[in-house]
Amino acid sequence: MDAAVRLEASPSARTAADRAFDALRAEIVEGELAAGAPLTEVEQASRLGVSRTPVREAFARLIAAGLATERGPRTLVVSDIEPDDVTALFELRTALDEQAARIAARVCAAAGAGERFAELATRFAAVDRAALAADDPQRHAYYALVAEFDAALDESLSGSPYLGAAIQSTRVHLARVRRLARADDQRLAQSAAEHAAIARAIADGDPERAAAATRLHLHEALTSIHAHLPRSGDDRTQEKK
User: Fold this and answer.
1) Which of 213, 227, 218 is nearest to 92 (CA)?
2) 3-78 classified as CATH 3.40.50.800
3) Where are the domains of the chain?
4) Is the overall model pTM greater than 0.85, yes or no?
């Protein structure tokens, strides 16, 4: 997606720095700006159609979010994704998501309101390699379904704001690393089945089954990501030549 289009589509109430940050963050998460890609104020300001000041502010926010890093005076690049960092992220996310699944299941059981998760389970169960082949190369339809699941989970956590905030703070990094497996339709089909199991357990109001299904999903996701993750000192630079 063209970054300028993203900016034009953003609400006018948002500042230029907000819109520049959102556009750059989306490109990093989706892999359009790869790890190690240089970020310069002049180039990005021209490309995004804004002045250098909001781009400078957006860069500071990218650094704070861990999506960009300084490699010397006036040299900013998209952050690398190291295997140890991914493992640490998933250790945290497993603890958070297991508890979130438990709470969502309890909410559904108490309120008798599992219809939304039951519907999501049905839609995830319908995702197979044929359906993924009909998606676009970035698998936007699949990830939109995952986003719907995340939104439903977030709503279930309205009574646990600290847990919800912690999950939100890690979600952008999780979205970035899990897209490393986007070309592997077999893994994505398996992931859809795992999401279906989580959503079904939540809809049934079964907290421990929902937590166990979440733990299995994140274990399988981490294993797949490590299999796809470039290692430090690999031939990435040679591949660009």
Assistant:
1) 218
2) no
3) 3-78, 83-228
4) no
